[in-house]
Amino acid sequence: MEWTAPMTTDRCTSVHNFASDFCKPEELRDHLNTIRNICTKKAGTTTKNALDTSIMCGFYSCGDAAEFIFMLCQHWKLSEETKYKALEIFTRFMSLLMSQLYDIMHESKTDKSSHKILSKTTGNGHISSDLEAGSVFSASDRDNHLGWITGENGESDMTDKEWMETIEHVKSQTKLRAVTSVMIASKVTSHEHIITLNKAADILIKQNHCYSRNVIMKSELRILNTINYNLRLLDSPYPCVMVLLEILCRIDDRFCDRRVYNTCIDMLDLYYFFRPQILSALSGVTVLDSGLPQLDCPDKTSTFIATCYSVLKVCGALVTAAAYAYDRNLSDAAVTNLCDIIETSESQLTRDCCVILKILSQEDFE
User: What is the domain partition of the chain in residue ranges?
Assistant: First the structure.
């Protein structure tokens, strides 16, 4: 079902910087319906395993990771779109990295004689010539660096100490991966504010990490290979929030205030800091409403996960929460108009908004 409700004005009267004054209502509807179709397609194909769920939940791009990437983007004066895309690139790469490390633990192809520790053998190259798209580790990585994970019988031969050393190695590269993610995002979103290798190397030196430009470039290639160069359909809520806010501006002039936009950005920042907690709480109330799915039925399980983590659902709640934080009276207008746009009930949208505000009110921001 596509949203076709009329807008009161054909031209935007807002002072926001996220849409053209000449963007027609039909184009906004098409944009929103495209987002909805992407969400529907992803629900049927990419929400059936723990990896995709971890990517949606942002387990690796919240808290300190989000704070560091936000700091980088503020330092380089990059746009909001760039910082959110950088976070999505980072979380997708880290999710794939940890998932493939887990898979390698259960492989039986490596001989026990190649027992070596990752942190002592990978060096600073971070990439091999036979790295394939979608893979964090190349064949030579597996043969030369990761053989210690599995024993000759295919069973885990790794001690707790060795696993912790692996985790420490991954953590030691976190800032390199974060800076590289921002570099990639800057190239995708802007041709005027691209982060160069020199800028990346300088900021890493200030963070007490000395990497050559060659190593940074190889890290960039590794991330792009790992995410299959898929930079368009990342699960960032930013475009959806901007479209919803732009539509509201066409319906109610009160949403045209620049402060409403700024409050939405603040709410998005907080969402990224506490994304796992917020999505967990939203899934909890979904369970209360509809119950748990039949776990032996993949289609029902996939639908349940897609409902819990629907981008449209989350973005509608974030915009409503931002409107409430700015002006309680404005939140009523947001609920009334958004429930038709994102195809939900007023009670559900109000409930999701309250869940987000409750989570944020309980957190310590110091």
Answer: 25-45+237-362, 66-226
